[in-house]
Amino acid sequence: MTVSTTLSQTALLVELEPVVARNLDRHLSLAKEWFPHEYVPWSEGRTFDGPLGGEAWSPTDSTIPDVARTALIVNLLTEDNLPSYHHEIATLFGRDGAWGTWVHRWTAEEGRHGVAIRDYLTVTRAVDPVALERARMTHMSEGYTNAHGDEVLHSLAYVSFQELATRISHRNTGKATGDPACEALLARVAADENLHMVFYRNLLAAAFELAPSQAMRAVADVVADFQMPGNGIDGFARKSVAIALAGIYDLRQHRDDVLQPVLRQWDVFNVTGLNADGEAAREQLATQLDALENAASRFEEKRDARAARLALR
Ligand SMILES: [Fe+2]
Ligand SMILES: [Fe+2]
Fold it and tell me: Distance from the CA of 133 to the center of ligand 2, in angstroms?
């Protein structure tokens, strides 16, 4: 038997609202309060040049490796674009009821991430504060548009993957800094991202019960054109290659540590009751995962060959 009813975007929002309410309660019971100021080594700070006449930033002010600095900048600029993300989800999910409560709560939690990382970077002089501010202006001036902005299930699929991707990226960036304080801060941020992922993943799991073919279509489309939210950052292509070469976030992690665990939770390859489009979507998803496997292996081979060449020098 196949389910052929297609639910409208409004019907999906209404049907999922009780699931939002349940998962909001769950989230609030699990989310731990934390304070950004406790993660910043303020006593290491020094006044900068400018109106207060301190010392200008120099690359030698910090011993954090270059690639970790690049990843920190990408992660912070990604967090900085929160007003755009808020606009996107408030427009799609609405500002009322359980959906609205979630939208505002999520925004408040995300706001902490940018504050904490910026304070840390400024106090420890890990990155050029002038370049960082200019990059923030450029990036936020572009704004962010959800590639599937008027589709509820596509957006839920996207954020399920994106929150997990962000978690892994923060976690590995922390490790790459070699600085225990930075690692502790980014691990704390990553724990938030994980709870966000679980929230969205649970919603889409409910959507698989409610409208399996529409959910499958959403997942297949999102996996096919997934882009990190920071992809509009100036120089993103170059930066993301450096980040991938350092193993902070690469295709292998994207496929095996982001897509696969979430897809496994939804048990996508055993979902029943799909219509023709749902089945087609699932086949596209399988093909896409194979293509990603090949691309990830090719990248790893190239990275190994590059490492071997560098070792010979
Ligand atoms: Fe965040
Ligand atoms: Fe998040």
Answer: 22
DSSP class of residue 151 equals -
pLDDT of the residue at 4 = 57
Q: Whose atoms come closest to the Cα of 159: which ligand?
A: 2
| Separation between Cα atoms, residue 307 and residue 312, nearest integer Å | 9
CA 213 – ligand 1 centroid, Å: 30
Q: Which ligand has the minimum distance to the alpha carbon of residue 194?
A: 2
Distance between CA atoms of residues 173 and 179, nearest Å: 10
- What pTM, to 2 d.p., does this model score? 0.96
Q: Which residues surround ligand 1, an ion (CB under 5 A)?
A: 110, 113
Q: Exposure pattern of 159-173 as b/e (b: 16+ CB <10 Å)?
A: bbbbbbbbbbbbbbb
Residues 21-34 have pLDDT tens digits of 999 999 999 999 99
Provide the 3-class DSSP secondary structure of residue 237.
helix
Of the bound ligands, which one is closest to the alpha carbon of residue 196?
2
Question: What is the 164 CA–ligand 2 centroid distance (Å)?
Answer: 8
Cα(130) to ligand 2 centroid in Å equals 26
160-203 confidence digits (pLDDT tens): 999 999 999 999 999 999 999 999 999 999 999 999 999 999 99
Ligand 2 centre and the CA of 163: distance in Å?
Answer: 5
Please determine, for residue 47, whether its predicted confidence score (pLDDT) is greater than 70. Answer: yes
Q: Give the residue-averaged pLDDT of 231-253.
A: 96
Give me the amino acid identity at 284: Q
The DSSP letter of residue 59 is G
pLDDT digits (tens, 9 = 90+) for 257-280: 999 999 999 999 999 999 999 999
Q: Is 234 helix (H, G, I), strand (E, B) or coil?
A: coil
Helices (H), 47-179: 66-80, 82-93, 97-124, 129-142, 152-177
N residues, the chain: 313
Percentage, residues of the chain above pLDDT 70: 99
Distance from the CA of 132 to the center of ligand 1, in angstroms?
18
